[in-house]
Structure formats: C-alpha cells, structure tokens
Amino acid sequence: MEVILADYLGFCYGVKRAITIARENASADGTACTLGPIIHNPQMVERLKREGVGSVDRLDELRHGTVIIRSHGVGPQVYDEAERRGLGIVDATCPHVKKAQISAKLLVEEGYHVVIIGEREHPEVKSIFEWSNGQAEIIETTAEADALKTWAKLGIVCQTTFSGGKFREIVTHLVEKSREIKVLRTICTATDQRQAAAMELAANVDVMLVIGGKNSANTTRLAQLCAKQCKTYHIETADELQPGWFDKIEKIGITAGASTPDWIIKEVYKKCQNR
C-alpha cells in the first residue's frame, strides 16, 4: 500500500507565527493567556497549556498579565478593553487576517457597503465584521448573494480560508448588485495551495485522510473538497484510524489543515506505512 503526502499541508505561515509568539510569551504562573484557542487544533492548544500558555474565553477571566490575540483576530473593541483592564497585549493575528480586517475598515471609510464572504459564525469572520464597525453584511451562499439589495458602491472581502471556487461563484452573483464594485480577494495563498494540492492528490488515490481539528474550518473544507474525488476521512489524530478503511486499498493520500502540527501528521503517516 502506497502512502502519499500532499505537496502542501500542515502549518501555514500565520499559524507558525502565532505559535512562536505564544511560546515566546509563555508564563509559568499562568498569567499569559490567549483569548479563545490560538488556533483550531485541540492537541496544539493542550500542548501550549503545558508550556505555560493558557486560554480564556473572556477578558474578565484574566485579572492581570498578558492577553495573546489569537491568529483569527479580534475586533478593535477587544484591544480597547484589554488596555482599560491594564493587561499586556501581544498580537498574534495572522497577517492575512489583519489585511482582511483593515480592508473592511477602509472600504467602509471610502463609502462602500461591505460584504464579507465567509462563515458568519467563524471567529475570523466575526473579527472582520467588527473592524467594519458592524456595518458589513456576511454572505455564505449564492442564495444570500441573490437576496442582497442593490447598493451604489459595493466592497467585497473574504474569509482567508474560504474556498476559492465558492468565492468566485458568489462574486458572480453579486456583480449585478452595484454599478461600482471593489473586490478584494483576501483568501491567503496557503489556502489556495492546500486546496489545489489536496484535490489533485485525491483524484489519484483510493482514500484520502484529512488531518486537523474538527473545529477547523479550513480542514473541514479540505475534507469536503477531497470527498468529491474519493472516499475521505477527517481525523484529528492517528488513534482514529480504523483498519476497515484500508481493505483492498492500494493508495492512501494524506493532507492536513493549516493548523495541524507536524508531529500529528508524522504519526498518521507512520501508522499508515506500518499497516
């Protein structure tokens, strides 16, 4: 049985940067905490906790110390509140997310009605919305795009981990909604690379394993794309592998979301090779 890794998989630049920043600010006394999980990978979050980086859901849970802004970013009001509480602020927001946030802010200031294409419950999308001063509309589907009313000026930004194909499809439904449209394709390069590599590999294997947090949007999207090509399993760790998945299988493909640590990918790869 042949086991093949996708050309692009695992940690992206923004996630590597966030993990490095978190580790540089670890504290043995538990006063360094991320606001929410720094990335969407439970195993990495747990490892960081053991290394001295905790996690809180609200700023009022941290009476003193340092708050680390996670890779998904937060709205401007969080920075203000942290400052009012006298907390140290370390910003680990992914630069690509920061670009999408600032793009939304600038579009509003330029008089555009802003549309954010992405998952409305995703923390990154919420942060972009907050940088639009709460004035943007969030759209996930072509049906929602069709329902949008017309505007004199329409500005479009996107969740950085959104599907490129789905983004283009939704934009085609928005072009009739304004005579002046500004489209800022804020999908990051790593997302495009991972999705393209995963789909190419899935078309040439019998089974795909997609590794990453079940709460990770970009990992879930990889699994959805691969499932269109072949049988696909979304797993978090090697412990989830089932012998029955590989009966009469000749080729296994492996990819991983942008927040999946190398050590987890290696464990899955090794376990597959040893079958």
UniProtKB/TrEMBL annotation:
Molecular function via GO: 4 iron, 4 sulfur cluster binding; 4-hydroxy-3-methylbut-2-enyl diphosphate reductase activity; metal ion binding
Taxonomic superkingdom: Bacteria
Pathway: Isoprenoid biosynthesis; isopentenyl diphosphate biosynthesis via DXP pathway; isopentenyl diphosphate from 1-deoxy-D-xylulose 5-phosphate: step 6/6; Isoprenoid biosynthesis; dimethylallyl diphosphate biosynthesis; dimethylallyl diphosphate from (2E)-4-hydroxy-3-methylbutenyl diphosphate: step 1/1
Reactions catalysed according to its record: isopentenyl diphosphate + 2 oxidized [2Fe-2S]-[ferredoxin] + H2O = (2E)-4-hydroxy-3-methylbut-2-enyl diphosphate + 2 reduced [2Fe-2S]-[ferredoxin] + 2 H(+); dimethylallyl diphosphate + 2 oxidized [2Fe-2S]-[ferredoxin] + H2O = (2E)-4-hydroxy-3-methylbut-2-enyl diphosphate + 2 reduced [2Fe-2S]-[ferredoxin] + 2 H(+)
GO process annotations (BP): dimethylallyl diphosphate biosynthetic process; isopentenyl diphosphate biosynthetic process, methylerythritol 4-phosphate pathway; terpenoid biosynthetic process
Enzyme Commission numbers on file: 1.17.7.4
Residues that coordinate or bind isopentenyl diphosphate: 40, 72, 122, 216, 218, 259
Cofactor needs: [4Fe-4S] cluster
The record's free-text note on cofactor binding: Binds 1 [4Fe-4S] cluster per subunit.
InterPro entries, alphabetized: LytB/IspH
Keyword rRNA-binding: no
Active site: 124
Enzyme class, UniProt record, top EC level: oxidoreductase
Keywords on record: 4Fe-4S, Iron, Iron-sulfur, Isoprene biosynthesis, Metal-binding, Oxidoreductase
Residues the entry annotates as binding (2E)-4-hydroxy-3-methylbut-2-enyl diphosphate: 40, 72, 122, 160, 216, 218, 259
PANTHER family: 4-HYDROXY-3-METHYLBUT-2-ENYL DIPHOSPHATE REDUCTASE
NCBIfam families: ispH_lytB, PRK01045.1-1
Function description: Catalyzes the conversion of 1-hydroxy-2-methyl-2-(E)-butenyl 4-diphosphate (HMBPP) into a mixture of isopentenyl diphosphate (IPP) and dimethylallyl diphosphate (DMAPP). Acts in the terminal step of the DOXP/MEP pathway for isoprenoid precursor biosynthesis.
Family recorded in the similarity comment: Belongs to the IspH family.
Protein name, entry field: 4-hydroxy-3-methylbut-2-enyl diphosphate reductase
